[in-house]
Amino acid sequence: MIITLLHSPVSFCFIIFSFLFFYGSNGAKVTIINRCSFTVWPGILANSGSSGIGTTGFELASGGSRSFQAPQSWSGRFWARTGCNFDSQTGQFTCLTGDCGSNQVECNGSGAKPPATLAEFTIGSGPEDPTRKQDFYDVSLVDGYNVPMVVEASGGSEGDCLTTGCVADLNQRCPAELRFGSGSACKSACEAFGSPEYCCSGAYASPTECKPSMYSEIFKSACPRSYSYAFDDATSTFTCTSADYTITLCPSLPR
């Protein structure tokens, strides 16, 4: 039967197409590695219309890792929560940075409260051909910064497939007016001041009106491939096709 199929041009093409279709429709494996010297609690938020990927928050000890399968057309973000604990009286779970306000380890559809470093993905977007759908990914400092983070693509093609992220310790470089708490995170200018020119809102809600600020330039000079403000697309969004991704928290060396 197999020999007959392989000698039929139509059947052979169908087999090849089916293989490519299912391979291209698999989505992407996303692995989070914690190289920080402390435990973190990653949060995951799927964008509206995207299915969940098994959890919305979990504990990850120093040196630990965990992988997820993001299906085709999935979009969402990952971040690290730090300084987390359970209240001994109420049992509520809260975090010093990146808290999602759920009072639980699971974020349950809530995003990170700024400031927090974000890894953002759109898996399998683009042409109708399932073997050529591109992924888009970035590391964003638009909501501020709490831990160093790098995203690496592996096994992909058709796109830049470059490593992106922020290896620098921006908490050490953070201007006093952006400093969060005792220096555990660094706010964005939008979060710190709330003005339209920093938030790219109101009259500034377009690339022609909203320009880099002295504060976003501090982020950009330290982390050139990361999003530093809302319209920083050109140097901060990367593409790849049929790749898997590794998010490394507190990477030791630039890539």
Q: What would you say about this model in short?
A:
By secondary structure, the chain is an alpha+beta fold. The protein has helices at 2-6, 9-24, 170-173, 189-193, 196-199, 214-222, and strands at 28-34, 41-46, 65-70, 75-81, 85-86, 93-94, 118-125, 134-140, 149-154, 164-166, 179-180, 185-186, 238-241, 244-249. The chain has a single domain (27-249), classed as Thaumatin, CATH 2.60.110.10.
Task: Report on this structure.
With 255 residues, the protein is α+β, with helices and mostly antiparallel strands. It has one domain: Thaumatin (Sandwich), CATH 2.60.110. Helices cover 17% and strands 27% of the residues. The protein is built from six helices and 14 strands. It is globular. It starts with a helix and ends in a 6-residue tail after the last strand.
List the quaternary state of the chains.
single chain
Query: How is the CATH topology named?
Result: Thaumatin
What is the class in the CATH system? Mainly Beta
Tally the helices: 6
Strand ordering within the main sheet: 3-1-14-9-10
Distance between the termini: 50 Å
Low-confidence sequence ranges: 1-24
CATH superfamily: Thaumatin
**Total domain modules:** 1
Strand content: 25-35%
Query: What is the H/E order?
Result: HHEEEEEEEEEEHEEHHHEE
What best-fitting shape do the alpha-carbon axes yield? Answer: globular
Radius of gyration: 20 Å
Determine the structural class based on helices, strands and strand pairing: alpha+beta
Mean pLDDT: 89
Largest sheet: 5 strands, mixed
Helical content (DSSP H or I, runs of 4+): 10-25%
CATH second-level architecture:
Sandwich
Query: How many β-strand stretches?
Result: 14
Protein name: Thaumatin-like protein 1b
Disulfide bonds: 36-250, 84-95, 100-107, 161-240, 166-223, 174-186, 190-199, 200-210
Pfam family, one: Thaumatin
InterPro entries: Osmotin/thaumatin-like_sf, Thaumatin
